[in-house]
Write a structure and sequence with these properties.
The complex is a heterodimer of chains A (298) and B (291). Chain A is mainly alpha-helical. Chain A contains 14 helices and no strands. In chain A, helix 3 runs antiparallel to helix 6, helix 6 packs across helix 9 and helix 9 crosses helix 10. The radius of gyration of chain A is 24 Å and the shape is globular. Chain B is α/β, with parallel strands linked by helices and 291 residues long. In chain B, the strands form 3 sheets. Chain B has a 6-stranded mixed β-sheet with strand order 5-6-7-3-8-9, with helices on both faces. A 4-stranded antiparallel β-sheet of chain B has the order 11-12-10-13. In chain B, strands 2-1-4 form a 3-stranded antiparallel β-sheet, with helices on one face. In chain B, helix 4 packs antiparallel against helix 5 and helix 5 packs parallel to helix 6. The longest helix of chain B has 15 residues. The chains are: A mainly alpha (298), B alpha/beta (291).
Chain lengths: 298, 291
Amino acid sequence: MSTPSNVMPRSPQEPQVTAPAVPTASRRMYWLVRRELWEHRSIYIAPLAVATVFLFGFLIAFTLSPVHRHEPLDMPYELAAGLIMGTAFIVGIFYSLDALYGERRERSILFWKSLPVSDLTTVLSKFTIPLIILPLLSFAITVATQFVMLILSSAVLLGSGLGVGTLWARMSFFHMSLMLLYHILTVHGLWYAPIYGWLLLVSAWAPRAPFMWAFLPPFVIWGVEKVAFRTSHFLALLQYRLIGPQPSTTPSSGALMDMLSALTAAQFFSTPGLWIGLAIAAAFLAAAARLRRNREPI
Amino acid sequence: MACIEARGLRKAFGKTIALDGIDLRVEEGRILGLIGPNGAGKTTALNAILGLIPYQGELQVLGRDPWTERDQLMRDACFIADVAVLPRWMRVWQALDYLAGVHPRFDRAKAEGFLLKTTIKRASKVRELSKGMVAQLHLALVMAIDAKLLVLDEPTLGLDILYRKQFYDSLLNDYFDRSRTIVVTTHQVEEIQDVITDLMFINRGRIVFDCSMEEFESRYVEVMVNPEQISAARALKPIHERQVFGRSILLFDRVDRQQLAALGDVRTPSIADLFVAVLGNQTGEGQGAAR
């Protein structure tokens, strides 16, 4: 390898000012992320579709049996949140597996590499999708869906001559949204970061069938551990990662939102698992960027 | 300062040696044609120059180490690695927006100007375009980048003759000036004969021939020898001899043109003929890659 030179060679008569302004890192990141949204439209279409279908179902349920409307007031709202977040999680898995594999399969990696964007920047821009974009998007869609549900319920209640006071008082919409945002950003973003990092690494490496390469190794490790040591620490580790850190004391009501609020930010950010996970995610991403540097179309 | 400078460039894939110690120097403002049979190491050499693969030996492109500084190098260099590497899902306007967003030297107005000369619609997806139109689009994007070095690896493979001709015409008329450097590889050697300023043959990972086109035209003469003068012609030590329609065509290196004119019809050989001669002499058999 020759020694890298940091000095840009310029002939003396060429003044430095002719160099065009290099796009700032944030501007470049903006276009890289937009590029991902152009290619993977399922990032926003899938949660939107699920929300629409859910609202449709909610409407049917409400018109068919308005009797139930008093008891599980917050249940359908949590169901909506769960469905949309679950959809976003699945989209995130498939997106991450395709992000660095698809460009090699369709040979467009040769086009992307002909542009002044480093492999690390590219990998980070793709990591941004499951880490930030999908959580924020699913949050916005969830809140919008829940708001529509609230309006619909209120309209039906008012139409049947009942007041909406109890509904609005018990819902505390703002508090619920805030808790949701906290949950989405911490668990779906930060806590799941190593999962997405692993999927991106497989996506950068897999010669084919990234889905198989992503899910086979954990399965094999689980099996080997079970047979050799008769333990399932690895499975427990995966479960812990999927479920997220739990508060030490389970709140009496057992409702999801209460459980979330019980796990305070202080508790969450002092969980060693969070920081270990983030370090592992960083290692996976660095490895993915290194791999992409050497990768050719397949 | 040379645009590309390589010394002892080596690359092996396992036991296969793709580049066997190449020395290369391409000056600014040249158009270099890199010709070689399949598997000769052309693409490997270009990939090393573009920072797509690691290598051994010394290599500087525009004063940079391509492997460790690919992203900075791509501000001043650009390449078309193959036909059809544009992402198939992308729309034309997205490609324009994206390049304007990430590339400091991309001139969007210029690209739109080139596209106006074609029938490509801005809302079209790449997958909806014909192969020739994709090549036009890619060329329009690349020509709008104010790069110092442009590398083209088989840019016209599989295109029909109209698109191929147009491709090199616009490259010469709308893009090339003396401050830019272009490196091109192709199997269609006849179509770059009038385009390139320098010629290089590569075979089995080594550069086996290297000369400028001025030198090529003054040094090499092909003679369709009159049958009765064949032994006189052979006495002048041709580097290659072939038969066409029962007549002998002899290729000479550095032999006086006047002297040869007396033996038959004299003309400048095609690159393909020289290629066959050089590689045939090297290996004892023509590799048959030059068409």
